[in-house]
């Protein structure tokens, strides 16, 4: 903790000093109290400015203290805030960098707040299944109004102080001269004399708060309703119109009630799992190659999205297509994307123009010679991709990383047509590529460590969550999703209807059920793959032919107006129709199955067991580096509810003996060829 006496006017500046982000661990909390007490008794001090570093006023709680006695050791944050409130000299928070969670709560408990416009403030507790626990739910509505408080706390995303300059959250927002401005405010408060202004003395219109909170409660979506923190947050915010002590007590009670929930544990686990996912194993800890220019081959759905990611990351992008018409189409996609963001006020026109100025469109392969990384996103056909890589091999500069965005093809078969398999790897983006965070980074048999390190670093540059994968069919995500979808098809044969399966899984928290997803992405992709596999499929294998039969009738999903469901004006029918029912009943009869009702719990459990079984198998095969990577993939790429942690997290919550027994039953019912994750494999995954 640094002290620095301000020359004029008796203002002392207390600088929080716990790099890198001034997390409010026990030591820092104790020091703040001590510094306030020292300043309070110093007759030369009339007012206090509390500030942090350019990186952070404070990013909030010290996560390493979670679950340890230090977290609850006095002074807890609430006591620090109370000490500031009762200070006999005014305390002004001066904010730069981030003020998040407890960091913002610290500022809210001061007598005034001054911020640099670029400072970012937020109460992101909801993203960890919690609510602010040190007065945030009470003081933010009082200071900034109920509407902004709801936005910040329910959304969890930080906002720039400049965006909040017109609100009463800040006494001043400045572009520079932060400490001078804060000292000025502090001096004015000292001159005006006690009592200093404080959030706790403000009153809100009770009726308005009640109406807003009730509206917010009605507007909670299905996924938010499944998470206890959303209801608890609204309870606490609702109390902000009453006496402060009662509101703080309610907030505390709700906060403590949430800490131990499975949802909060799962969200903390995911947070850590995502941080871990980009850490390379020791063998790959090498210096990455420099990347300034990325080339993308193919400007279709994926290619255009990948190009946008790279442009947003301020990289130069070369976009190559097979002809001028396709190139113009791709360019138009990118232009439309930026125009949309500008129109929605999400991006400045100058930034959008600058991004597009970094884009070069071409049909000339020689133009790829200056790329540091080339990402191929052409049709999903091995021969087409091999042809592309042959041409690429002839023009790419030595040392360029050559990546394929294939969803299923063998990276080694693609690398084999080049003279440099050490530079070839997979970069599996998800659709829409400019939105989805997940990036599977696939290592071929010959990919060099520095090429892998480059790809993982590029993933971070593109603001993705890169996950290292082995080169096996479907990598991590599609392999598990296929097992899950297959199990859901088995459940149709056993007696469930698509809407029952979809409902049970959305009730579990999936964004969509598997049949609604299949209709959305188009059944023809799976149809094509299944026809290719049909020739080699063992006739003893359990296979549900409904999808193929739907496609044969022209029911390709949403785009053709019908798939598992019918779509009138783009809206999905609640239930499936007779055609679908007839096909399913025939499938059951053909397998000699007496149809029965499947309870939602059985549907959920079987779907999850299928994922866990496949996860254990692929982990045993070395496709994933760590079990938590599997959960990151499912949550980030496949709509698995984040607050359920992922299939591995879910499995760890289950009784192990029953889990093993259920997996054996599942695999037995799955018929010939289905691989069982035995107890050893399961233990490797879960212990
Ligand atoms: P798409 O059909 O929308 O685009 C492919 C583009 O590649 C077309 O514009 C085509 O003109 C171009 N192209 C084809 N051959 C070319 C060549 N020789 N040289 C230059 N350009 C060529 O396909 P998409 O959906 O963008 O998929 C591309 C790849 O991404 C596939 O491998 C696919 O499996 C993979 N992928 C797709 C998704 C998805 O959801 N669409 C998700 C992940 C991965």
TrEMBL record:
According to the entry, every stretch annotated as the 3-hydroxyacyl-CoA dehydrogenase NAD binding domain falls at: 293-470
Q: Which UniProt keywords apply?
A: Fatty acid metabolism, Isomerase, Lipid degradation, Lipid metabolism, Lyase, Multifunctional enzyme, NAD, Oxidoreductase, Peroxisome
For this protein, the record's Pfam families field holds: 3HCDH, 3HCDH_N, ECH_1
Record-linked SUPFAM superfamilies? 6-phosphogluconate dehydrogenase C-terminal domain-like, ClpP/crotonase, NAD(P)-binding Rossmann-fold domains
- A GO molecular-function descriptor: enoyl-CoA hydratase activity
List the InterPro entries hit by this protein, alphabetically: 3-OHacyl-CoA_DH_NAD-bd, 3HC_DH_C, 6-PGluconate_DH-like_C_sf, ClpP/crotonase-like_dom_sf, Enoyl-CoA_hyd/isom_CS, Enoyl-CoA_hydra/iso, NAD(P)-bd_dom_sf
Q: Where in the cell is it found?
A: Peroxisome
Q: In which pathway does it act?
A: Lipid metabolism; fatty acid beta-oxidation
Q: What is its main location?
A: other
Read off the CDD domains from this record: crotonase-like
Highest taxon of the lineage: Bacteria
UniProt catalytic activity: a (3S)-3-hydroxyacyl-CoA + NAD(+) = a 3-oxoacyl-CoA + NADH + H(+)
Q: Which GO terms describe its biological process?
A: fatty acid beta-oxidation
* Family according to the record: In the N-terminal section; belongs to the enoyl-CoA hydratase/isomerase family. Belongs to the enoyl-CoA hydratase/isomerase family.
What is the official name of this protein in its record?
3-hydroxyacyl-CoA dehydrogenase NAD-binding
Q: Which organism is it from?
A: Leptothrix cholodnii (strain ATCC 51168 / LMG 8142 / SP-6)
């Amino acid at each position: 903790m640094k002290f620095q006496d301000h020359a004029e006017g008796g203002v002392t500046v207390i600088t929080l000093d716990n790099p890198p982000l001034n997390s409010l661990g026990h030591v820092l909390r104790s020091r703040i109290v001590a510094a306030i007490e020292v300043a309070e008794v110093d007759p030369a001090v009339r007012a206090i400015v509390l500030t942090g570093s350019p990186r952070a006023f404070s990013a909030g709680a010290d996560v390493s203290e979670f679950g340890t006695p230090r977290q609850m050791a006095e002074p807890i944050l609430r006591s620090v805030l109370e000490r500031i409130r009762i200070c006999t000299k005014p305390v002004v928070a001066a904010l730069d960098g981030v003020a998040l969670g407890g960091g913002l709560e610290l500022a809210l408990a001061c007598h005034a707040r001054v911020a640099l416009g670029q400072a970012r403030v937020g109460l992101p507790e909801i993203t960890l299944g919690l609510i602010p626990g040190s007065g945030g739910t009470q003081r933010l509505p009082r200071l900034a109004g109920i509407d902004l408080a709801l936005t910040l706390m329910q959304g969890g995303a930080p906002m720039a102080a400049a965006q909040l300059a017109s609100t009463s959250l800040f006494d001043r927002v400045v572009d520079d001269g932060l400490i001078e401005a804060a000292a000025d405010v502090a001096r004015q408060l000292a001159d005006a004399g006690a009592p200093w202004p404080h959030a706790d003395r403000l009153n809100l219109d009770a009726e308005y708060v009640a109406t807003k909170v009730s509206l917010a409660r009605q507007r909670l979506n299905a996924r938010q309703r499944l998470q206890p923190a959303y209801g608890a947050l609204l309870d606490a915010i609702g109390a902000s119109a009453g006496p402060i002590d009662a509101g703080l007590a309610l907030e505390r009670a709700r906060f403590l009630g949430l800490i131990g929930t499975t949802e909060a544990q799962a969200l903390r686990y995911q947070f850590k799992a995502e941080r871990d996912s980009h850490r390379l194993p020791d063998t790959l800890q090498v210096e990455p190659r420099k990347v300034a220019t990325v080339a993308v081959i193919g400007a279709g759905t994926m290619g255009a999205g990948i190009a946008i990611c790279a442009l947003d990351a301020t990289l130069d992008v070369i976009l190559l297509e097979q002809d001028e018409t396709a190139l113009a189409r791709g360019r138009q996609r990118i232009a439309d994307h930026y125009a949309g963001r500008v129109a929605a006020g999400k991006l400045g026109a100058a930034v959008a123009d600058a991004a597009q100025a970094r884009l070069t469109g071409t049909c000339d392969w020689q133009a790829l010679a200056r790329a540091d990384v080339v990402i191929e996103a052409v049709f999903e056909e091995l021969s087409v991709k091999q042809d592309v890589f042959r041409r690429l091999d002839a023009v790419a500069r030595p040392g360029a990383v050559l990546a394929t965005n294939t969803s299923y093809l063998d990276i080694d078969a693609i690398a084999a047509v080049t003279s440099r398999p050490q530079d070839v790897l997979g970069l599996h983006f998800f659709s829409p590529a400019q939105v989805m965070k997940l990036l599977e980074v696939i290592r071929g048999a010959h990919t060099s460590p520095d090429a892998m390190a480059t790809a993982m670093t590029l993933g971070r540059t593109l603001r993705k969550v890169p996950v290292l994968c082995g080169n096996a069919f479907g990598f991590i995500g599609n392999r598990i999703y296929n097992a899950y979808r297959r199990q859901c098809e088995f459940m149709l044969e056993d007696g469930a209807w698509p809407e029952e399966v979809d409902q049970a899984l959305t009730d579990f928290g999936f964004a969509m059920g598997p049949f609604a997803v299949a209709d959305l992405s188009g059944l023809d992709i799976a149809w094509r793959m299944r026809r290719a596999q049909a020739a080699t499929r063992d006739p003893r294998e359990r296979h549900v032919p409904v999808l193929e039969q739907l496609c044969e009738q022209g029911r390709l999903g949403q785009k053709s107006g019908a798939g598992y469901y019918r779509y009138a004006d783009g809206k999905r029918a609640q239930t499936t129709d007779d055609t679908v029912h007839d096909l399913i009943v025939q499938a059951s009869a053909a397998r000699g199955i007496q149809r029965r009702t499947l309870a939602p719990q059985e549907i959920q459990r079987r779907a999850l067991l299928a994922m866990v079984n496949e996860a254990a198998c692929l982990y045993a095969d070395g496709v994933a580096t760590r079990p938590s990577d599997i959960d990151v993939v499912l949550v980030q790429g496949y709509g698995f509810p984040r607050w359920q942690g992922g299939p591995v997290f879910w499995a760890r919550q289950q009784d192990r003996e029953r889990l093993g027994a259920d997996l054996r039953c599942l695999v037995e019912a799955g018929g010939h060829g289905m691989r069982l994750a035995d107890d050893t494999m399961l233990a490797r995954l879960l212990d």
